[in-house]
Each structure stands twice: as structure tokens, then as C-alpha cells.
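Appendix B, example 12.
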Amino acid sequence: MRDAASADEAGVGTHARRSGWRASALRAAIVSLALLAALFGWSRLQPRGVALHGSALQSVPAPAFTGFTDTQGRVFSWRQQRGHVVLVFFGYTHCPDVCPLTLAALAQSLQRLGALRQRVRVVFVTLDPARDTLPVLRAYLDGFLPDTIGLHGSLAAVTAASRQWDITWRRVDTGPGQYWIDHTAAVTLVSPDGRLLVRYGYGQLTNPAWLADDLRHILEP
């Protein structure tokens, strides 16, 4: 009886080990498939054999700018941007440092593109709709990149869009009626087919050649 019981226990133990191994193998297979799917989605848009200078993003459609209009009062549509690389930046015109420096860095990079410059668009989304009226926004952007698309929306629209684009920001009051805005300083690159591709922190834009090289690789695969 003991031998039979021992055999039964051994069989149960073997079955449990096999079940555990199968469960582990299944989990590993699921993880592997997920990684392959992610890599496939990224490789569809990343130029073959090229490592871009920014941080890779999950390949998903770029979020819509619901409730925004450009400085000419037109509704922004990603469909109208098809075939162009779009660089999206959230900022505000009273920004003392990061915003003007970022726009200046973008201008330097785009100057290096020659004829390819026509296939790149810049979108500046204001985080300060109260002060950045459409005329103020247009005049500010004209000082850096005159063809920049400036987007203006209500505070509710700005809050919703910043969440969708993973931009954090907060208003810091400095005196009666005076304030500045602490915000994420990042430029998001949207591919010609309207999908998120890569994100650049300010430090990755300080060398104009880096972004220019990335844009060439994307536009001339």
C-alpha cells in the first residue's frame, strides 16, 4: 500500500511539475509574442538599421487635438498632415527659457534639411490660452518658424490634450495677476502616416544635427 501511495504521490508531483512547466512556458510565450508585436509595430516606422536619437514611443495614432483651432481659426486635422513628419511641442509665449530655446533648436535643425524641409511641419500647442490669444501666438511663432502651426484651445481642451500627449504642467503664481508655467519640455515626432514615433527631451535637441539626421532617415528610408 505504501508503495502504491508513494507511486501515486510521485505521479501527482510529476503532473504538478509538468503543469507548472507548461504554465511557465505559456507565460513566456505570451511575453515573447507581445515583445515581437511591439517590435514589429516599431520596425514598421523606424528606418531600417537606423537608431534614432530620441526615445522610441509605442506606435499608436497621434491623439486628436479636439477643441483646438490654429491661428487662422481653422480646425486642426491629422488627415491634413499626411505625408509630413510633424513635430509637436507644448509651451507658452511667456516662457522665459525652454520654449524659445526649443523653437530656436528646431529652426536650426530644419535649416539643414534643404528641400526636405517642405515635408516637415511644426505644431506649437499653447498651455496658456488666457494670455496666448491667436494674434499673440502668431506673432510669437513668426519670430522663430513662420510656418509653425499654433494651436489654441480652452483650458479644458488643453488639460485633456496634455494628458493624451503625456505632458505634465502646472501654473505657478508669482504675484498679483502674474504667473509662469512649469511644464514638460519635450518634442514628439509624428510619422508621415500619423503615428507616434519618437520623443526628444530638450537635451536631445541641443545638437541640431541629431534631429536633422533623424528626419532625413525617416523621409528618405
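Residues 1-49 have pLDDT under 50 and may be disordered. Residues 2-45 form the longest helix (44 residues).
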